[in-house]
TrEMBL record:
GO cellular component, one term: plasma membrane
Protein name, per record: Ribose transport system permease protein
GO terms assigned for molecular function: transmembrane transporter activity
Signal peptide start and end residues: none
Pfam families: BPD_transp_2
Keywords: Cell inner membrane, Cell membrane, Membrane, Transmembrane, Transmembrane helix, Transport
Organism expressing this protein natively: Chelatococcus caeni
Domain of life where this protein originates: Bacteria
Keyword Transmembrane: yes
UniProt topology in membrane: Multi-pass membrane protein
Transmembrane residue ranges: 38-59, 71-90, 96-120, 127-146, 194-217, 248-270, 282-312, 324-343
Keyword Cytoplasm (UniProt): no
Amino acid sequence: MMASETSSAPAGALKTGDFANVGRAAWWQRGFFASQTAYVAAALIAIVIVMALMSPAFLSAGNVANVAKNFSFIGIVTLGMTLVIVTGGIDLSVGSVMALSAIACAMAMQALASTGLAGVPFATMTLAIAAGLGVAVLVGLANGLLVARVGLSPFVTTLGMLSIARGLAYAVTEGRGQTPAGPDLDAFYAFTDGTILGVPMAVIYLLGLAAILGVVLHHTAFGRHVFALGGNEKAAALTGISVERVKVSVYVLCSLSAGFAGILMTGWLGSAPANLATGYELTIIAAAVIGGANLAGGIGGPAGAVIGALLIEVIRNGLVLAGINAYWQIVLVGMIIILAVLVDRLRSGRAA
């Protein structure tokens, strides 16, 4: 009886019980020290040592704080991007979402400053941040529905949204940067650009979100469903997983991470320019891929996202300290992406 049930399953389909271990298999069967993330972490340590020997200023307190803050913005969005990539998708709109959410937050603070809410502690800041994140949710929802329900290509959909969001950022501001204002301005700067025991808030947010994502991916049903979609979407649907719901959720979470990072950058810069985070989508995708996320889906995690983002920032910072034209960063990032994918292919015994 059991044999007949097994033979009737569609070719290539996975049994329901298999999905209970999809996320765990990716984590435990391969193990961190056998993963691409571990190789990249080793490369990061080696590069840090070389940079420190080449430039004594590299490990100075000021430069370390600068590197930590800069990579945190990229790292936060890379966490969301990793979710999308694990399902086999891509989101090219994150840079534009960062700008649009930052502008929405700054303009909301300006508008609320002249209302009765100005007398309520933290009200204008809270509502302004909610407005910025709300814009990000709407963009992510649009991306997710177009990809999951309408069936459009993730690449084409998010490329179009990149243009729409960036165009809206320029249209509503007429190309002028928006500065946060109001009675909660100091609290806003403390929330976005403050420190705790000398650690920048952006770093604290990044580490906290990475820990949460790690738990979600490897210890919840949602995380297992995310891995299942990337492994075999048709088989996942056959086991009763709501493919549409999971896809929409990851695109919303990705946009939320972009919106949050954009708001943090507003506090760091003291303004929300319309050209904020232009081109960041490529760096973010690069960080995810370098950290071990597979563009074919099914592989990825928060540790790799954080390490990948840090590696890119260390290289960028090292080039600046070495007096090398910073535009070479673009060339090096591209080379690192190709090398990272090649090493993973060779290590796993698959043809490139």
